[in-house]
Batch of 2 targets.
Target 1
Amino acid sequence: MHDVIEAGPQQRVRLDVSYDGTDFAGWAVQPQQRTVQGVLEEALATVLRLPQVGLTVAGRTDAGVHARGQVAHLDVPEPIWATTGEQLLRRLAGVLPPDVRITGVRAVPHEFDARFGALWRRYEYLISDAPHGVDPLHRHQVLGWPRRLDTEAMAEAATRLVGLHDFVAFCRRREGATTVRQLQELTVTRSGHDIVCTVVADAFCHSMVRSLVGSLIAVGEGRRPADWPGGLLERDRRADDVTVAGARGLTLVAVGYPPDDELAIRAEETRVKRELPRR
Amino acid sequence: MHDVIEAGPQQRVRLDVSYDGTDFAGWAVQPQQRTVQGVLEEALATVLRLPQVGLTVAGRTDAGVHARGQVAHLDVPEPIWATTGEQLLRRLAGVLPPDVRITGVRAVPHEFDARFGALWRRYEYLISDAPHGVDPLHRHQVLGWPRRLDTEAMAEAATRLVGLHDFVAFCRRREGATTVRQLQELTVTRSGHDIVCTVVADAFCHSMVRSLVGSLIAVGEGRRPADWPGGLLERDRRADDVTVAGARGLTLVAVGYPPDDELAIRAEETRVKRELPRR
């Protein structure tokens, strides 16, 4: 289903995508569900006049999770790209519903791979602990917390999670998939009642960002000490005592890629299963 | 209906209010309609255990217009205020729907008047002329414009509107009401595809902000020269050739008041009908 039917030379095309995840059952196509992938593939097929298209994405976001820097790619038969390319962005704007936008369209080398070529993904998790609740104009993308959170303790806990670790305690395990990740950044900052958790890693396993944030909230509430989230890295299975923070607070904000001449190397490296270095 | 039934000493209370106007038929109570005033008065009556309360507001926003710095006042019987005051904000947070929040509650002198005491009101009108459309996460509060706007021409046109003028061309006239206003600030700024029109005046007549913005958009599109909006100030009736810009782009962001010891003077001054100075 994800292979383009047309034969002949293809142009690889990168799409930058933003969406409000509220009314989507996540990124990935599911039968009978409104998904970002489903809506985009249908719009692209319409505009490109193809029977179907297949998208590969950087981050398969869950139901309710938002994006303002999602990246996907697809292959477009060269004759179609030659006649449609420049107008694709405006045409898609007219066809797509207002809760999803393609903000960038450009031809990329065939080695570009939105999923395996990504160097890092950056997420932001927004929380408000204002006693009056969440700003109405941002309520679909901010988690409201009814009590004040100790963000200094959360920030301290966050520093202990950064680095190359097995994050199995924070992941929903999939058979045969690694849970070793390079957590490059995890910060907690406050401006008034607005709290931002920024999370950057080479990649994330399922529910990892929201589990990390959930463990930090437990610290912020004073239910757990600041060394608790870091201590979970010693476990060899999912930690059932970590609450997965709600989807609405989470936004995929950016994905990083290497320069074009390093694309092929990067994609191949990523396909090799990540392993903890021996010490 | 706007008079509190209870006799005895009353405490005047200032409320700061934010709302997403999308699902409200504006501020003012109307039969069979969901209005901000209606929802707030019901929540306040519930929490204060009063049969009804009456709110006076700084800016009676239209259907679809948002606020993050709206101000209102009401009078609360002193014994009720004495027992409820400090907890009012949290209790209201639990009772109000998520699209309206009371962000501040405080006792003020009896001379404080949210409507007649205001020195200025500040609105922001947000436009995006991105070819891909409006950011999905901000789509309820930003007007999408499908063609690029010349914001330099808009900014130039805006400067010609600032000052004390009869804005009748930009107003829906009400019998006996003045349309003379002191427009203190009207600026147009761009950051990428995001355009902000900031409008500050002592007060606004009905539809004035959206008519000002509509006239600037006509300039930005090149349909009118930059001196056209300023020229409309010479007219003696509503200009039918000015398009009222859509409600969704407009947010009341702040209202200014004098220090407490000047409150009574200001409210009295405002009640006197504004007149153009003789030249």
Target 2
Amino acid sequence: MNGAPRLDAKALFPRGVTAFSVDDLTGYRGPALKVLEGAGIKIGDFIELQLSGDSVKGTLVPRYQNNDDRHIVVKLKSGYNVGIGVARVSGIRRLAEGERPSFTSSPPKAEDGLPLVSILGTGGTIASRVDYRTGAVHAAISAEDLYSLMPELSDIANISPEIVVSVYSENLEPEHWEKIAAKVSECVARGARGVIVTTGTDVMGYTSAALSFALQKVPVPVFVVGSQRSSDRPSSDAYLNLIGAVSMAVSAEFSGVYVVMHADTSDERLAVHRGTRVRKNHTSARDAFRSVGLEPVAYWSRGGLDLVSPSLPKRGSGPFTARPRFDAGAALLKFYPSMQTAYVRSILDSGLKGLVIEGTGLGHINGKNVAAIKGFIDAGGLVCMTSQCIWGRVDMNVYDTGRDLLEAGVVPLEDMLGETALSKMMWVLANAASSGERRAMMTSDLAGETTERTLPGGSA
Amino acid sequence: MNGAPRLDAKALFPRGVTAFSVDDLTGYRGPALKVLEGAGIKIGDFIELQLSGDSVKGTLVPRYQNNDDRHIVVKLKSGYNVGIGVARVSGIRRLAEGERPSFTSSPPKAEDGLPLVSILGTGGTIASRVDYRTGAVHAAISAEDLYSLMPELSDIANISPEIVVSVYSENLEPEHWEKIAAKVSECVARGARGVIVTTGTDVMGYTSAALSFALQKVPVPVFVVGSQRSSDRPSSDAYLNLIGAVSMAVSAEFSGVYVVMHADTSDERLAVHRGTRVRKNHTSARDAFRSVGLEPVAYWSRGGLDLVSPSLPKRGSGPFTARPRFDAGAALLKFYPSMQTAYVRSILDSGLKGLVIEGTGLGHINGKNVAAIKGFIDAGGLVCMTSQCIWGRVDMNVYDTGRDLLEAGVVPLEDMLGETALSKMMWVLANAASSGERRAMMTSDLAGETTERTLPGGSA
């Protein structure tokens, strides 16, 4: 225990980032608070906890108000947090005092002659701060703040930050997608070498799909980026995601709309996902985002870019016209057993123009709702089928139920994700001139939203 | 090409199974039909297709009526089907004629003294036949038929087959779950050493969860089994799934409700999934079913049973009372961006008693719908939150939206699957005496529907 290295707590955190307040013991209560107060320890201190025959060293971090009162949580050098039950603690001591870093007040200036990269802020965790009194996260940091938090960005690009909208992503509406798409288009016209859209991760897949349809043939890369942990928290994934996106915006040779997020939990490697084939598959993990039905198109690390897909569209300077119109008259309906006809009829009567169903298996709903679906289609409504399985392809020719739905006019969407199908339908409803064109657009691959069948129709 | 082995086509198929009609060229049309007719080849023949510098050998299988007319599909020795474009075919010849196997007319008799295993049929692909005129699958085979298709079952158990209900699984209703659960209970009372429930895979996860709640503390293993390919098709996974389930019903030392399906695509290994933690994650793959958030509890192959989970309930003879009551007044609502208040209000007004929301991320919906949700709860409705991410845990304390929903009375369900939560709510609505008891039941782990947190509340 003597000779324990005196680590600099600041080294644990990115440059210029306020890790947390070190003035108090935020979030600690009861037995845990008593132990910490008794030892004169504050949040941010680098401490050692003695356990029976073992010890743990780390930086004391705050707790949420609603957490229990029997654990002390420290951040290990590895970056992971670990909670230690106070009953196990036989001793505690401070190895180093907490630092008091603060936000830098103004962004550094970029070098002349660096390529222009636009960062468009739309809210979300990547642009939020933790309120450690409640453990809560509030939308607060502007795109400019982010820039000031990551001064190294000024070494690689001339950053043009702008807030387009500032909402938690679950509150995003098609009208926000319209604003974002129009703004990306403006940035491209102004000569941006690439555009970064920072957004909340909750509906990031829906948003990246929406932008993929509105920005078809965009001549530069557009990276949709978020973080699972807010930018002012020591374990935030925001830094690597944003730095990687800016780096690729400058140097990547491909164009199109992609999601850029952690590829794994290592904080070293990013995955670049096709904007129409990506899904948030975990509530909290750094590598929550996964490409479905295909590999990510590329991986990025500080060592460079590994292209996986050989057929990405090249950067181009040809004519590009955004089509940033969406219609909120579409809904996504996940089928479940015993779904009542009253339920389905009430939805269809709520003013919808189109419905994406996440059916079961190959694309099914219960038979008793087929008539209502048919009536909606006969009256001009658009109904498309995807699968709640997530992986695999709908095939409505195999079972009676599927054939009945096809006969009613339901449009099968191959292996399109339900979330992508909803964004696409909102875009199609605003951009197709006729019901025939709607159907044709929904079943045409416009932005890589479906993958090709690997076998041409094996039968058994 | 000379010296090609004369394989017995029958060896490719399980005993006693009609692979398909060999009287015609069902499903083939146009160019493909012309090539096959020209060579005098019938479905079921073992053939060789010459390609440029290559050749493919396999058994000709039928095609669906709606498939294209430019591919010939053969089943390789590996069991896989491959479609060959007729344009690539430079020659074709028959190596062996198709067999004409037929269904055996009556089940073999089991040996005296073998343990009793009940097989309860409820419909689904595992109990269906392909109509090769349309490529369609119809519910047709009874549990007794299945038994006659797999005579080896008579070597290990005294099988008692019974049809409880016969519907495609997407048409299953809570009243069907009631019948199935009651029948399982009867079988246990009659001394069954294990019970197999064969069912369609579409809503198998919902059904296995429903049975898990209705059959808590069941003293024998109950295996919910299906197949992704119908039992009369050569590539069916029905055989191994059913044989493995019967084998485990006889010999496994644990009790409880589990799903038994292929662990991978090899047709050699089965996974045993906890009935409340399993999800159909692929529309068509044999290994579509996956345990979410934990390993399968066991793997089975003809070599034996590999237990993964050390803490499964043991077989027991204690008192067991099924609680086979469900209430169809619950719905599952997957949130999507811009979900309209008219949509949500119409659902809440459709006569529901409870609602499971699949929110985004940690458990969110858009702010504009919180008031309607609160109104529904204030009027006595039950609303619970899961995540559409599928993996990970809801945590509604992190963001404003989550806290607003908690304040409105929404009940967070940890890492429970949305599908499981719906089945549980239907069971709770029928079995709880008060609104307080409903909440308590929803948040108590009754049948392994939630997993424990791995860290006691790290904060960053």
